[in-house]
Amino acid sequence: MPHELLKGQPLILIVDDMTENLKVIGSILKEEKYRIIVATDGVKAIELASSQKPDLILLDIQMPGIDGYEVCKRLKINQVTSAIPVIFLSAYNEPSYISMGFEAGGDDYITKPFQAKEIIARIETHLSLKFSLQKLKELNSIGHQSEEKLTTELNNSNFRKTGFAKWLIIAFANKDRRILTIIFISLICLLVVLGLLDLYIFPGSQ
After folding, report:
1. Element (H, E) at 88
2. Bridge partners of 90?
3. 97 vs 95: CA distance, rounded Å
4. How far is Cα of residue 61 from the mean position of the Cα atoms in its chain?
5. DSSP 3-state helix, strand, coil percentages of the chain (rounded to 5)?
6. Number of H helices, E strands in the chain
7. How far apart, in Å, are the Cα atoms of 98 and each of 37, 109, 111?
């Protein structure tokens, strides 16, 4: 797993009713240091996905009871499992089956027989995308929280120089453009109110 985002041994759920397929796929993934859990039917797959929250799911289509398409649909409408990437693994290579996989909410589709390098490459791609999106959401959440705190502080009638300095330190330390932008705009507004804007924008103009 060469990608730097793939840390902490991602957990992958393999869903297939054929024991031999589970062994082959499991062996490939273990070689790459992935952790794995397995399910041999759709019901168990849904249960494991909800309780274990794997980082990615490899899903067969033809299974007893609930087929892979239905499993994927149920996973994608469940808030707990909707963000988990689902890669279909199937011997069905007709375009209609592949289209049904994507329509069911699948993120990718690999036909059997497959090459080990192919499946690993697909897995790494989807895990990298998943972890990147998670990171962006975290940063966005932090940005919103910082913005709300800063707005409250700036609007506080008891706002002091120490508070302003604190936010400047936080902004520069975290390279938070949201905070720096709000501080800059607030300073401009303050200078306008004080009638000092020209002095700061055009020093020595008088």
Report:
1. strand 86-90
2. 111
3. 5
4. 25
5. 60, 10, 30
6. 8, 5
7. 25, 7, 9
Q: Residue 160 — very low, low, confident or very high, per pLDDT cuts 50/70/90?
A: very low
Is residue 14 within 8 Å of residue 38, measured between CB atoms? Answer: yes
Rounded distance, CA 151 to CA 56, Å? Answer: 39
> Which residue matches tokens 């149920």?
74
Identify which of 61, 58, 64 has the alpha carbon closest to the alpha carbon of residue 36.
Answer: 58
H or E stretch at 72: helix 68-77
Distance CA 31, CA 40 (A): 22
CA distances from 44 to 26, 49, 67 (A): 17, 8, 12
Q: For residue 6, what pLDDT is reported?
A: 44
Tell me the pLDDT tens digit for each residue of 69-86: 999 999 999 999 999 999
Is residue 111 exposed (0-12), middle (13-18) or buried (19+ Cβ within 10 Å)? middle
Q: What is the pTM of this model?
A: 0.66
136 — pLDDT class (breaks 50, 70, 90): confident
Report the candidate in 66, 114, 52, 50 with the shortest Cα–Cα distance to residue 87.
Answer: 114
Identity of residue 82: S
33 contacts 59 by C-beta, under 8 angstroms: no
Predicted confidence band of residue 5 (pLDDT cuts 50, 70, 90):
very low
The whole-angstrom separation of Cα 203 and Cα 81 is 58
Q: Whole-angstrom Cα distance, residue 154 to residue 80? A: 37
